[in-house]
């Protein structure tokens, strides 16, 4: 049997003929996409600008409150510091006598917040510490609460006089009868029948 070999020129033309429908459809899609972008009105741009994707709140590091810093005292051991502040975010091998606690939070629509506290050790005890002014736990939680306030919260308690204004659905005799009624049987029965 002889193998049929086609000339190279015929292979090139066959490949071009098959690729042309794909190129044509890609060109049509690109033209339609460009004309769609050009026909956007100011109103549709404003609508798209109002819709923003959700960005995840990113919290990195150790949150340190002012109450925790007040608990630190010069001369505390490294273990005592770990119990109060936790493990440091940065502990440099070349500067073994320095621990850095860094806290960063990034939220959508709010400037990133960064706080830093640095502890310096002499031997195993705390020599000194310095850093940014740190908020209390209550202040920090208040800054995280982004819910809108709707005004004063109404009182949810009613006095006896206010409750007596509304008629009850049952009379006292009907309420006593309901209290003495047997409970319905449970399904499946919990008692064994032997």
Layout of helices and strands, plus pairs?
Layout: H1 8-38, H2 42-50, E1 58-61, H3 66-71, H4 78-85, E2 90-91, E3 98-107, E4 110-122, E5 125-131, H5 137-144, H6 160-164, H7 172-180
Antiparallel strand pairs: 1-3, 2-3, 3-4, 4-5
Report on the structure:
- This protein has 194 residues and is an alpha+beta fold.
- 39% of the residues lie in helices and 19% in strands.
- It has a domain at 58-144: 2-Layer Sandwich (Beta-lactamase Inhibitory Protein, Chain:B, domain 1), CATH 3.30.1450.
- The protein is built from seven helices and five strands, in the order ααβααββββααα.
- Strands 1, 2, 3, 4 and 5 form a five-stranded antiparallel sheet that branches.
- The longest helix is centred in the first third of the chain and has 31 residues, at 8-38.
- It comes from Variovorax ginsengisoli.
Concise account of the structure shown:
The chain has 194 residues and is an alpha+beta fold.
The whole-number mean of residue pLDDT values reads: 74
At the first level of CATH, what is the class of one domain?
Alpha Beta
Could you tell me the number of beta strands?
A: 5
Oligomer: single chain
What is the straight-line distance between the termini?
90 Å
**Strand/helix succession:** HHEHHEEEEHHH
Radius of gyration: 37 Å
The CATH architecture term of one domain is 2-Layer Sandwich
- By secondary-structure content and strand pairing, the structural class works out as alpha+beta
Unreliable parts: 13-17
Indicate the percent of residues in helices: 25-40%
CATH topology of one domain: Beta-lactamase Inhibitory Protein, Chain:B, domain 1
Q: Largest sheet, if any?
A: 5 strands, antiparallel
Strand content: 15-25%
């Amino acid at each position: 049997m002889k193998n049929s070999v086609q000339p190279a020129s015929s292979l090139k033309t066959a490949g071009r003929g098959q690729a042309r429908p794909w190129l044509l459809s890609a060109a049509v899609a690109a033209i339609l996409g460009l004309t769609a972008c050009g026909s956007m009105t100011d109103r549709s741009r404003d609508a798209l600008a109002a819709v923003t994707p959700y960005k995840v709140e990113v919290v990195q590091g150790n949150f340190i409150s002012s109450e925790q810093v007040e608990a630190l005292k010069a001369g505390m051991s490294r273990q005592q510091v770990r119990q109060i502040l936790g493990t440091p975010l940065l502990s440099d091998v070349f500067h073994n006598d320095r621990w850095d606690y860094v806290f960063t939070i990034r939220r959508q629509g709010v400037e990133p917040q960064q706080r830093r506290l640095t502890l310096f050790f002499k031997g195993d005890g705390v020599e000194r510490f310095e850093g940014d002014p740190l908020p209390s736990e209550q202040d920090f939680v208040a800054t995280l609460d982004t819910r809108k306030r709707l005004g004063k919260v109404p009182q949810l308690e009613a006095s006896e006089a206010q409750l007596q204004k509304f008629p009850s659905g049952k009379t006292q005799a009907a309420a006593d009868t309901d209290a003495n009624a047997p409970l319905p049987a449970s399904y499946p029965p919990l008692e064994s029948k032997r």
